Amino acid sequence: MSSRTVRAAAVQIAPDLTSRAGTMARVLGAIADAASQGAELIVFPETFVPFYPYFSFVLPPIKQGKPHLHLYEEAVTVPSDETRAVAEAAAQAGAVVVLGVNERDHGSLYNAQLIFDADGTLLLKRRKITPTYHERMIWGQGDGSGLKVVETAVGRVGALACWEHYNPLARYALMTQHEEIHVAQFPGSLVGPIFGEQIEVTMRHHALESGCFVVNATGWLTPEQIASVTPDEGLQKGLRDGCMTCIITPEGRHAVPPLTEGEGILMADLDMSLITKRKRMMDSVGHYARPELLSLLHDPSPTVTRRTSAPETPFTPIPLEAEA
């Protein structure tokens, strides 16, 4: 039974709603801050860079063109200067970093989760498999290739974003790969108090069911930022509360009190021996499973929009004039 201890940090801060550069400065500052407190795992909220598309929740489609185009302009490509900067910061801190970004891939945006190992290696780039409700106007869909648990300096880490946690088969795909630490990311400052309550229930249930630690980060908006998204005070109610930055043990308990408002970095020491203690009682993908009755079919192959029936040959320029 492992006696390892991992110090985890879940970051709840506000992005810069005007620029990628501004939010990146906040990311790098938070990595340094958490590392100075001994963090070995640092988790940021959903699509934190440049920011979660809060506008899509409160504005009608006809008014989303300008902010949506701005999101395209400020989105992150992978690889890029931004991903290299995070990789360098992770390596300098000696910490695993999980960052949510709006990823731009040519003409499409995706909700992406990036896992950097403690040496700066980008171990995983995954895309949210199904954007939720208003998000479908903003992001494309991911595929099964991202439902993957990776070996990191702190153990086996899996990740899902927001309401992907309401898809039991997506969670089970990670559970079958024996994740030890599950990383979750939500936007925060959204929907209202009920959202934070729902997040807490979901995070505690996944920890219990999978027998792993859950480190969840939600974002935060200041009153001024909320007003900048919409001046309508009625709609502004949909951009308040809904925060539940938390760290949950395999026993379904909060390792430390959650952070539900304001900015801060939640820190907790994860006693990895609790994983075996929980799974001794109930291993849902091992001795408690009944694969002859119930099993999961998971297609891990990337989806592509173009396939070729034969190897392509290099293009040879055609002369504009016939040779003499």
UniProtKB/TrEMBL annotation:
Residues 6-272 form the CN hydrolase domain. Residues 299-324 are annotated as: Disordered. GO terms for molecular function: nitrilase activity. InterPro entries: C-N_Hydrolase, C-N_Hydrolase_sf, Nitrilase, Nitrilase/CN_hydratase_CS, Nitrilases_CHs. Residues 302-311 have a biased composition (Polar residues). PANTHER family: CN HYDROLASE DOMAIN-CONTAINING PROTEIN, NITRILASE. Belongs to the carbon-nitrogen hydrolase superfamily. Nitrilase family. This is Nit6803 family nitriliase. The lineage of its organism: Bacteria, Pseudomonadati, Pseudomonadota, Alphaproteobacteria, Rhodobacterales.
